[in-house]
């Protein structure tokens, strides 16, 4: 007996953590026999996974919900904006249901209510590793939800709750399945990767009959056994990170750390309520580089935070000169509805914020360019992300996370495929990217 499978449209906004939530919902939908529709009008209902982090993202999410309502009419809202009380209800009273982030079960319950699941779904509709939104050769692995910090510019804990680490065997099984499926790079994400397991007091878990601590060090040791790239994101410079630098030096995981420093002035860090703000960060970076000279550090900074004086800003410039970070993003402070920082005194005028951002980026551009130029003449392993019409392979080295860092171009891609590892000699560098020739 043939039947037409009900179709669900899907819109996913926001960060990799939201994309990871989307992948779980899509996997469940497919497993239960729903079809995923690429268009609004072909769908029986639409799920919108929203972002609620800064005000611009809230607006983008509300617009996306409005568009889905106009084009389709039946809309279920999930994600971070759904956690922000009545924002969605007030703007779009006709949505069918609203849930917060990380709510696969709730979303499925609402889908079942408004679009009953098909009979007799074939269990083999879904590949082992589920439905993924990234290319086949890399995957995000989320190791925890939520965060124990209360940074004043951030509302994530109010949306996603306190730190809740995943069981170590569940993370390791997911990684093993991905590696088996041919994934070449695992990107480890959470709100606070260094804190993995703190909430469980680093308790012993069991994987393949072996006891393993729920802790970043043991997690990295295990992930390093698959012989593929393992990249850590959102790491705070706690002392616990010192333990994983030797693993990087030994080539077990990539010598890459994504550390959101946000500022260098103690006064501003205190106003931000940043974790690890009193640590001697420069001393720590120096020690890490002694152990692992190839270490690449990417970071983000906020300029124009309320109360930031010219002196605080100069302290930040001195810090980046000294720290010589490889990849840096800079944002001007933007108020977030519901964030404590909105109440702080001495907001910085918009034009001063913009001028500081330009000065910051000019200093960092020189540092980045010099660090890339120093790679010319070196041989690096790169991973092929795509091959364009001209036959150029667009690749990344260990120093480059997908979509946020630079690229390595190989002009002769003959015989290469997406997902291949290739040895190249670096022959040229620009401010952001490198050019390589195959060895």
From TrEMBL:
Q: Which PROSITE patterns match?
A: MTTASE_N (PS51449), MTTASE_RADICAL (PS01278), RADICAL_SAM (PS51918), TRAM (PS50926)
Residues that bind [4Fe-4S] cluster 2: 147, 151, 154
The name under which this protein is listed is Ribosomal protein uS12 methylthiotransferase RimO
Q: Which InterPro entries match?
A: Elp3/MiaA/NifB-like_rSAM, Methylthiotransferase, Methylthiotransferase_CS, Methylthiotransferase_N, Methylthiotransferase_N_sf, NA-bd_OB-fold, Ribosomal_uS12_MeSTrfase_RimO, rSAM
The record describes the protein's role as:
Catalyzes the methylthiolation of an aspartic acid residue of ribosomal protein uS12.
Enzyme class comes to: transferase
Domain (MTTase N-terminal) spans 6-116
Q: Which family does it belong to?
A: Belongs to the methylthiotransferase family. RimO subfamily.
Q: Where does [4Fe-4S] cluster 1 bind?
A: 15, 51, 80
Localisation: Cytoplasm
What reaction does this catalyse? L-aspartate(89)-[ribosomal protein uS12]-hydrogen + (sulfur carrier)-SH + AH2 + 2 S-adenosyl-L-methionine = 3-methylsulfanyl-L-aspartate(89)-[ribosomal protein uS12]-hydrogen + (sulfur carrier)-H + 5'-deoxyadenosine + L-methionine + A + S-adenosyl-L-homocysteine + 2 H(+)
Lineage, top-rank taxon, reads Bacteria
The cofactor binding remark recorded in the entry reads: Binds 2 [4Fe-4S] clusters. One cluster is coordinated with 3 cysteines and an exchangeable S-adenosyl-L-methionine.
Residue ranges of domain TRAM in the record: 373-439
Start and end of every Radical SAM core domain?
Answer: 133-370
Q: What's one Pfam family the UniProt record gives for this protein?
A: UPF0004
Q: Which cofactor does it need?
A: [4Fe-4S] cluster
Q: What is its EC number?
A: 2.8.4.4
Q: Which GO terms describe its cellular component?
A: ribosome
The record's GO molecular-function terms, alphabetically, read: protein methylthiotransferase activity
Alphabetic keyword roster: 4Fe-4S, Cytoplasm, Iron, Iron-sulfur, Metal-binding, Ribonucleoprotein, Ribosomal protein, S-adenosyl-L-methionine, Transferase
């Amino acid at each position: 007996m043939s039947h037409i499978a009900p179709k669900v449209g899907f819109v996913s906004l926001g960060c990799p953590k939201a994309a990871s939530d989307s992948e779980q919902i899509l996997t469940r939908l497919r497993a239960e026999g729903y079809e995923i529709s690429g268009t609004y009008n072909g769908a029986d209902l639409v799920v919108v996974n929203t972002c609620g982090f800064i005000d611009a993202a809230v607006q983008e999410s509300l617009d996306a919900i409005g568009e889905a309502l106009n084009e389709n009419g039946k809309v279920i809202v999930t994600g971070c904006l759904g956690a922000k009380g009545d924002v969605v209800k007030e703007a779009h009273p006709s949505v069918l249901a609203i849930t917060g982030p990380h709510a696969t079960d709730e979303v499925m319950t609402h889908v079942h209510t408004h679009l009953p699941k098909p009979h007799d779904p074939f269990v083999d509709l879904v590949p082992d590793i589920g439905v993924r939104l990234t290319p086949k050769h890399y995957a995000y692995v989320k190791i925890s939800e939520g965060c124990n910090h209360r940074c004043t510019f951030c509302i994530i804990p109010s949306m996603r709750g306190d730190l809740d680490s995943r069981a170590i065997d569940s993370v390791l099984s997911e990684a093993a399945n991905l590696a088996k499926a041919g994934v070449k790079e695992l990107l480890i994400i959470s709100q606070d990767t260094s804190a993995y397991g703190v909430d469980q007091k680093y308790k012993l878990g069991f994987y393949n009959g072996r006891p393993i601590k729920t802790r970043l060090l043991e997690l990295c040791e295990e992930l390093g056994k698959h012989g593929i790239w393992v990249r850590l994101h959102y790491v705070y410079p706690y002392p616990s990170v010192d333990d994983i630098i030797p693993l990087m030096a030994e080539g077990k995981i990539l010598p890459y750390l994504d550390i959101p420093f946000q500022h260098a002035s103690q006064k501003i860090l205190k106003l931000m309520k940043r974790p690890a703000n009193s640590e001697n960060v420069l001393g720590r970076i120096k020690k890490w580089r002694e152990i692992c000279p190839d270490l690449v550090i990417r970071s983000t900074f906020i300029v124009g935070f309320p109360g930031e004086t010219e002196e605080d800003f100069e302290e930040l410039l001195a810090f980046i000169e000294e720290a010589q970070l490889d990849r840096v993003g800079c944002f001007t402070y933007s108020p977030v509805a519901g964030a404590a920082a909105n109440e702080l005194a001495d907001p910085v005028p918009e034009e001063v914020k913009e001028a500081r951002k330009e000065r910051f980026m000019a200093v960092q551009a020189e540092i980045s360019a010099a660090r890339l130029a120093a790679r010319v003449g070196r041989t690096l392993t790169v991973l092929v992300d795509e091959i364009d019409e001209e036959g150029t392979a667009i690749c990344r080295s260990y120093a480059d996370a997908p979509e946020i860092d630079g690229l390595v171009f190989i002009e002769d891609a003959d015989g290469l495929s997406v997902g291949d590892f290739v040895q190249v000699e670096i022959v040229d560098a620009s401010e952001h990217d490198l050019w390589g020739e195959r060895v």
